Amino acid sequence: MHVGVLTGGGDCPGLNAVIRAVTQSLIRDAGARVTGIERGFLGLIERRVQPLDSHAVSGILHQGGTILGAHNAADPFHWPGNERGGDVSADVLAYARELGLDALVVIGGDGTMRIAHRFQQLGLPVVGVPKTIDNDLLHTERSFGFDSAVAVVAEALQRLETTARSHRRVMVLETMGRYAGWIALEGGLAGGADAILLPELPYDLQAIATLCHEREAEAGFTLICIAEGAHPAGGAMTVQAHLAHSPDPVRLGGVGEALRAQLQPLLASEVRSTQLGHVQRGGQPTAFDRVLSTRFGCHAAEMVARREFGRMVVLRGDACTSVPLSEVAGGSRRVPPDHPLLRAAASLGISLGRPCGAAPSSATP
Amino acid sequence: MHVGVLTGGGDCPGLNAVIRAVTQSLIRDAGARVTGIERGFLGLIERRVQPLDSHAVSGILHQGGTILGAHNAADPFHWPGNERGGDVSADVLAYARELGLDALVVIGGDGTMRIAHRFQQLGLPVVGVPKTIDNDLLHTERSFGFDSAVAVVAEALQRLETTARSHRRVMVLETMGRYAGWIALEGGLAGGADAILLPELPYDLQAIATLCHEREAEAGFTLICIAEGAHPAGGAMTVQAHLAHSPDPVRLGGVGEALRAQLQPLLASEVRSTQLGHVQRGGQPTAFDRVLSTRFGCHAAEMVARREFGRMVVLRGDACTSVPLSEVAGGSRRVPPDHPLLRAAASLGISLGRPCGAAPSSATP
Amino acid sequence: MHVGVLTGGGDCPGLNAVIRAVTQSLIRDAGARVTGIERGFLGLIERRVQPLDSHAVSGILHQGGTILGAHNAADPFHWPGNERGGDVSADVLAYARELGLDALVVIGGDGTMRIAHRFQQLGLPVVGVPKTIDNDLLHTERSFGFDSAVAVVAEALQRLETTARSHRRVMVLETMGRYAGWIALEGGLAGGADAILLPELPYDLQAIATLCHEREAEAGFTLICIAEGAHPAGGAMTVQAHLAHSPDPVRLGGVGEALRAQLQPLLASEVRSTQLGHVQRGGQPTAFDRVLSTRFGCHAAEMVARREFGRMVVLRGDACTSVPLSEVAGGSRRVPPDHPLLRAAASLGISLGRPCGAAPSSATP
Amino acid sequence: MHVGVLTGGGDCPGLNAVIRAVTQSLIRDAGARVTGIERGFLGLIERRVQPLDSHAVSGILHQGGTILGAHNAADPFHWPGNERGGDVSADVLAYARELGLDALVVIGGDGTMRIAHRFQQLGLPVVGVPKTIDNDLLHTERSFGFDSAVAVVAEALQRLETTARSHRRVMVLETMGRYAGWIALEGGLAGGADAILLPELPYDLQAIATLCHEREAEAGFTLICIAEGAHPAGGAMTVQAHLAHSPDPVRLGGVGEALRAQLQPLLASEVRSTQLGHVQRGGQPTAFDRVLSTRFGCHAAEMVARREFGRMVVLRGDACTSVPLSEVAGGSRRVPPDHPLLRAAASLGISLGRPCGAAPSSATP
Fold first, then answer.
1. In which band, very low, low, confident or very high, does the pLDDT at C358 lie, cut at 50, 70 and 90?
2. Closest Cα of chain B to A165: distance in Å?
3. End-to-end C-alpha distance for chain C, whole angstroms
């Protein structure tokens, strides 16, 4: 049996741990030969692969990134600069046959799974492993990388707290999370944020200013954790207006900086913002993520051995199982307004936004 | 409403995060007054308490240990040096009435919950919060502190790997886990151990020596992670025999050191052992444990507000719920021989022991 | 003897360790009474102090920030909104007499030492302790906080490397250092940067682009560490031009983002930038900084006991000694063009800028 | 020019950073060819080498251990099992000639430098780089690895403090340091130890018990940091007597465990001991150690290029320079009784032993 392994989309702590587990399990339990595809689907398009054996995956458990390389946007069904309207899937399938691949283990997110599903339908047997640092894939309760990102956010907040407390400042930390606020929510809770602003719950600038005022009088400082996709109630207009004259609004400051600029005139304290950026997705996975990645990898290898194709590994409760690839694509798991962690945050007095159309909650004074 | 909070048994990262969440939630959502009992049930015996308000629990989210103090062995039903055969529970109840406590939140393990249950039966309303660094309490999938301990073990293994690899040594790391091997199992997986030895799966010295031999020829080094309660197949006799002339066998070396002494004569490589000890249970909780502790604390406060007494918070799937205190005591969650993590470990080629009475598994060559 | 302690200027890891060491040493060895002044010189203006004893400084060794609070800009000789042209120094001296202060230990940087020196001249005995996260104070080889900032930068670079390597990107990390590039230099060396850009050595955009090109072909990625005060040769004009339409150039992106925007059109690889911000100065001091802070604090206490006033502690070689306050102010220690670390960087092939007026060095291909 | 590189003795964080800096500098600045000798002098005896180029040393800056492998006891002048009384130095010189080595860079401690010196005398040009995790080599103020070990000790003490404080215990931490107490001294200061016991200052058990008693009444707990070579005043007899019936006294418990056993009967609090072991020398070097290692490596390469042979790199003040190999061997830098850090520790109230023959100091009540 000859199995290909591929990591699609952006990098994420734990990818190497999955590659190691898949490779060692396939070699050991299924007697398989394993080949790594370089840089996601790009490797199948440009025909770049490398053999994976015990030696190649030795010592990579702790390493961030992916030894196979990553590419954010290589889609064989839409590959620019190709005469056939960008569809090079037939070439990819031909290459897979040339390699003699009996199956492909595809580690990736929503977009990668959509591509994987199409190859499955075209006859290339596929097993998917969910990868989303934002923890927003449907069907799986947790995915690897998320715990590592949360740990980075929590540590940054803890560092910012000491300087906020000493200088009696308002500190704004912007985290990843364009559509789903899980990282800001768990990172903010773990880091002791006083306000947590998510894409799912538009915030009220005045409520945040009130919180900062109240805290100026007592604790003396305020920590705000804001996801990059968060926006004020009434639309993202205010942020965009503020940044309208900027050539590249997201890069030149981001929503954290925009919130800082809006808050500062309303407050006596100094307001400062920090944007964590790529530091959140680089580096070593936490121990938790190493165990989860290893589990996912071993489960994917078992699925290959059982020829359980066209499905993606998921975690449910404390057990690994799988769902059809067709069910994975086209949706994402956002923070529901009644999630227990939101309830917990509110009962701790953490300021949150409120669902669109909702009346002001008691948590935002 | 006046609520007491108490941390029983040994300390554990995350205790302060629970205390903070319980206190802030009770004050904010239930308008309660909160009193901290010092050093577990000892504070109720010796009448030492302290008021808990927002200020008292500010900034403790990250702190290891417990601001209330801990005591391993204070049981009001068996309190030595008392004329009534050691039962001072009536005094404790009288003191609780004097304080005007309407409820008691008890954070602790198996033994603490047994005591809590008896007080509930005697009329003191109790809500329990599970605390077990070993992750071995029945009914809850995870408890706080465990992730932190696993992280310490994984980091120690990672450190030991560099020296093992450079010197081509066999390194033995002894972890906590007298009856349940969860810490050694997850810590060993996350830290890249080549053999993981648990109390649940007696090990075969010769199989471990064979593994080390094989690795001497290839990778050149071997990492062994052994729980303090692990023992060789055929009984713990060999270890005890080895240490028989030691006045205090567990302290003077432990099972890791005993394994080292047994392995050394069989191998050409040097064998070294390290015992992590209390470093595993001290220090800051991981971000994961801070979130879980906060959730447990908020859920316990909700239970108090709903007068849902005589029950303990548990985590099932991704949801907090509760079970009767009567069901908690008198059992522990050990690693079952068919656990998916054991299967994953075996398919990675990690050497494990085998269940009592089982034939040698393929994982132990 | 009654001694005041004050932390001036911005916060810095290790301030609390100094406060603890000064306080405990003064109490123990000089039998002194110690009073903490709140928020730098603001506390002397607004008459806010707190007693410092063994209990008050217990457990603060590891804490970031300062328990006394900080204020960046409180100068009693220039205090806005005062009828006497802003000079409230006489009030401060009167308050010091009221308190009965025999001496003042002032922990701070260049600006703080200038103020301290004036009070010394006005008859208030002062001992200075150098505080500069940028490590740019004259006369002292090292100051506390710097090692902690370097550690944060090195860890961020290490994280960014995994994602740069996986995605074959150019990653730009902007660090603190407006006038002196020590943090970027040591952080960049420790973090494995391929180019290190300092305020002292204007950079050549084309040389950096060439480096990135060369690395695209080999390693596949490039790590650039740039101090916030770095600028291209030929003047900072290009950066400012790029950001001219931005209302707040430094905040909305900074020089790292400007460099990214300039590099991107020249390269095939994606270029990304990250600005570490306040994360660099918050949080726990490293072990090194705790030892250095403790040493500085104990030495300052000895100087008070010996009535060695009007001087600031400095580290020379491996010994603490002192210099007159008059010599400290009005200068800063910048990275000299012939510094051994620059020579080491060049011989590793790290791209550096070159001194104003210098011909292109061999290190910038 | 063809240069060999060799790491002798035990491993130490920073070795790989030195190897990387030496290799890259020699290739870049001297146009040299570089060959790595495997496992210290063993590689010259057993003729095992590997080529070192830019690719081979890429990405190893952060790695603990040594990519060349280490061997504690391979001395070509005393090599057991050889007909000529163990002297295989002539074979080694012949092999060096066969390889065409023009120079050898030897990274190691006291023992390794002694061997290096003899080869220099026999005509093989040598440059030495000091390596001592204990920081006890003569002539150099700091060596790499030491800062990393101190950081591990400080973190362990910080973890132990939380559990000591919660349970009101006495915690004993045993560190490396058989003859010189630098690790225990700086680690103990950085970790907040209440007593620091060094080989250089025999301790008085009764004084330590008194300290614990005093702290039982106040703080409630005591942290003791003891170097593995520390011993009670009046000779190490008491420890050895205690452990006399143990087959391997150092391994089965060590001096920390012995101190625990001696203290426990004198105290009401529980006493617990932990022995850090190899965790102290494994793992990633700190940022400080990476910079120092890089500097040492680049300086050694410069010395080779200048043909400055027979000398070892040293750090003096903030500058790298060198001393003759003949001056290095046969001595070690121990903590002098009047060292400023000891004075600082005493003025903080930290309990220390006292120099042999000295009267009890005021620091040991």
1. low
2. 10
3. 62
Report domain D149-280+336-352's class. Answer: alpha beta
Considering the domain delimited by B150-280+336-352, tell me its CATH architecture: 3-Layer(aba) Sandwich (3.40)
Neighbours of C235 (CB within 10 A): 10
B348/A298 Cβ within 8 A: yes
ipTM: 0.92
Structure tokens at B104: 């008691």
Spatial strand order in the sheet of D103-108: D49-52, D33-37, D2-7, D103-108, D126-130, D311-316, D319-324
Contact assignment for C288 to D286 by CB distance below 8 Å: yes
Chain B residues with beta carbon closer than 8 angstroms to that of A20: 348
Q: Who among D167, D260, D283 is closest to B158 (CB)?
A: D283
Which CATH number is C152-280+336-352 given? Answer: 3.40.50.460
Mutate to test the interface with D, among C16, C142, C288 (most CBs of D within 10 A): C288
Beta strands in B11-88 (DSSP E): 33-37, 49-52
What pLDDT does C62 receive?
Answer: 95
Q: Which of A221-235, B124-138, C345-359 comes out lowest in average pLDDT?
A: C345-359
Which residues in chain A are classed under CATH 3.40.50.450?
A: 2-144+283-328
Mean pLDDT of A188-205: 97
The more confident residue out of B86 and B339 is: B339
pLDDT above 50 for D103: yes
Note the Cα C89 to chain centre separation in Å.
27
Residue A120 phi/psi, 5-degree rounding, is: -55, -45
Give the pair of three-digit tokens for residue D347: 């003025």
The answer on pLDDT for D242 being more than 60 is no
* DSSP code string of A231-268: -BTT-THHHHHHTTTSSSTTTTTHHHHHHHHHHGGG-S
Look at domain A2-144+283-328 and name its CATH class. alpha beta
* Res A361 pLDDT > 70: no
C177 is in an annotated binding site: yes
Please answer whether residues D22 and D57 qualify as being in contact, where contact means their C-beta atoms are separated by less than 8 angstroms.
no
Q: Is C350 a known ligand-binding residue?
A: no
* Cα–chain center distance at D115: 18
Read off the pLDDT band of A250 (50, 70, 90).
very low
Residue of B nearest to A285 (CA): B190
Among candidates D108, D122, D84, D146, which has minimal Cα distance to D18?
Answer: D108
In chain A, residues with a C-beta closer than 8 Å to the C-beta of B318 are: 141, 317
More confident: D104 or A254:
D104
Comma-separated ranges of CATH 3.40.50.460 domains in chain A: 150-280+336-352
> Is D281 marked as binding a ligand?
yes
Whose CA is closest to A162, among C38, C173, C24, C16? C16
Architecture per CATH, domain B2-144+285-328, reads as 3-Layer(aba) Sandwich (3.40)
Residue B153, pLDDT > 60, answer yes
- Ranking B87-96, C250-259, D38-47, D249-258 by mean pLDDT, the lowest is D249-258
- pLDDT surpassing 50 at residue D238: no
| Percentage with pLDDT > 70 across chain C | 91
Pick from B94, B101, B60, B59: nearest CA to B76: B94
- Tokens 């299924």 belong to which residue? A30
Q: Find, among C348, C277, C328, the residue nearest to C110 by Cα.
A: C328
CA–CA distance, C340 with A227 (Å, rounded to integer): 43
Q: At residue C249, does pLDDT exceed 60?
A: no
- Measured CA to CA, the distance from residue C158 to residue C193 in angstroms comes to 9
- pLDDT at residue number D84: 63
Q: Is residue D171 within 8 Å of D224, Cβ to Cβ?
A: yes
**Which of B7, B162, B176, B273 is the best substitution to test chain D (most D C-beta atoms within 10 A)?**
B162
